[in-house]
């Protein structure tokens, strides 16, 4: 059991106060084994090992971090470098926004289109689907059932065997929609024909985003596949499916490293809700066969950042306070207790707070969080774009009223103003010292 091996080596590291070259080499060997067993491409593993070794031997662990934690953290950071940071969302910034799905037959495109449609419906969008798969028997029927259940517009014609014509007609039919998702075939007589077809469809659809679907269970072939598809069209993001079984997704990792597109979501089952935003930490822990990487990293990071997240404090004090900052504040409040109490702990802050801010109830907090979950990443970062049509969409997506969205925006604006006013004061005195 490799996970166990790795854990054992990590244990060896635990008691040491100085990093020993031999031990680092041992850890790296274990990690190499774990990664190769998880189907990560060998060349990639070797490159990675070299970087990890250099860093582990040359970088001084921060004070309070044991060599073990330090090495794990380096391993983790380098792996995250490969798969990309936390998932970026689908950012729908024009109308109609067109998404093209590509990938081999059986990779899970059609199923995933159902999943992402449900996900986007929750955000208040209404995707229209075009079926251009003329190869799989009953491809249209599969989509018909899926879209009927979810109440989504579908364009397709089981009699028409011309994928390009289907794409054109579908686009024409859905001109007025917000969002169009194009499903494609993953099979042809010859692989080259399939790739040619993807290139042609892409030229017709002019997608705003191409999503490559990779079966998480296929191992090493994933890299080749991704490379082949990326030659026909620019892959914008990746979804890895079938991570509900024993597959570790190492092949997919190699694919990602090869084409450099981020993983946005993963599929974890056949049902429409078996769909998650990509979480690099979980993916990597799984890849390494280690369950406890999370807590180790948390500890290492906590010590390193000295308890206060100075970036967010600085951002707040400079007046940049987004809905996202407010969201993390809410999260913190959930843990720490009511806002007023928290603010009162900071001299000078309590009285500066708007009255209704201190009356934040748990019920409201819950409501605001649901509303924010229906916003896109862009909206959370740039709340000023939330005008009438977005208010409606957010309300629809969260199952609440327009007034609720407006109430949240009002709360945000009042809070932001209060913080801005506060930030203008000099950061000296007891407050300044507290924050530094
Ligand atoms: P397509 O040919 O790329 O459109 O693939 P389909 O969407 O038709 O899926 C092929 C098979 O994989 C179906 O039996 C799906 O139920 C199954 N499938 C798709 N995604 C997942 C997943 O995340 N987990 C599991 N276990 N099965 C999946
Ligand atoms: Mg399909």
UniProtKB/TrEMBL annotation:
Gene3D superfamilies: P-loop containing nucleotide triphosphate hydrolases, Signal recognition particle SRP54, nucleotide-binding domain, Signal recognition particle, SRP54 subunit, M-domain
GO cellular component, one term: signal recognition particle
Database matches in Pfam families: SRP54, SRP54_N, SRP_SPB
Recorded catalytic activity of this chain's protein: GTP + H2O = GDP + phosphate + H(+)
Biological-process GO terms, alphabetical: SRP-dependent cotranslational protein targeting to membrane
Domain-level remarks: Composed of three domains: the N-terminal N domain, which is responsible for interactions with the ribosome, the central G domain, which binds GTP, and the C-terminal M domain, which binds the RNA and the signal sequence of the RNC.
Name of the protein in question: Signal recognition particle 54 kDa protein
Species this chain originates from: Methanobacterium paludis (strain DSM 25820 / JCM 18151 / SWAN1)
